[in-house]
Amino acid sequence: MTRVFRVAFAGLVFVFALSGCVGPARTTHTYESKAVRTANDSLSELQTALLSVQMTRRGRMMQVYLETVLSESEDAFSSIQNTFDSIQPPDTGRADQLRAGLDTLLSDGADGLAQLRILARRQDTRGLAAEVHKLTATAAALDKFAQEHG
């Protein structure tokens, strides 16, 4: 490689690394709007997973496709969670409350999606039903969070 190419490549890597960083939210209102967006985006992934399980249980979706959908929903959910966690909240008690409340819901959602994926691969219908019940409650809590703060 030529020196110019190496410098250009290193510059591109640096730019892409910086673009992955989210940075601080300057006001509590801005942070709250980012939290609402995160709640809505993560809710969408939970709803996709829950609908897929429901469709499979009704015989309208193949088991192999369910496993794929659950894996992709889990990956997308994790990305949404990581993006929110990388935001530096403003130095206010209200921002800390928002972060704590949403982080709890996001952790519950991530754990639930992982469990759904595992149970689906094992074809554990009883376990899936129990996990769907838990995730439905988490989805309702995320929706409530978004409504209260939106």
Can you offer a commentary on this structure?
The protein has 150 residues and is an all-alpha fold. The protein has a single domain, classed as Four Helix Bundle (Hemerythrin (Met), subunit A). It has helices at residues 3-19, 28-57, 63-85, 93-122, 125-149, and strands at 23-24, 87-88. Strands 1-2 form a two-stranded parallel sheet. The model is unreliable at 4-20 (pLDDT under 50).
Topology:
Elements: H1 3-19, E1 23-24, H2 28-57, H3 63-85, E2 87-88, H4 93-122, H5 125-149
Parallel strand pairs: 1-2
What's this entry about, in short?
This protein has helices at 3-19, 28-57, 63-85, 93-122, 125-149; strands at 23-24, 87-88.
**Percent helix:** over 70%
* CATH class category name: Mainly Alpha
Total helices: the number is 5
Could you tell me how far the N terminus lies from the C terminus, measured between alpha carbons in angstroms? 52 Å
How many structural units, i.e. domains? 1
Mean pLDDT: 89
Structural class: mainly alpha
Descriptive tags:
single chain, 150 residues, mainly alpha, Four Helix Bundle (Hemerythrin (Met), subunit A), two-stranded parallel ribbon, 5 helices, 3% strand
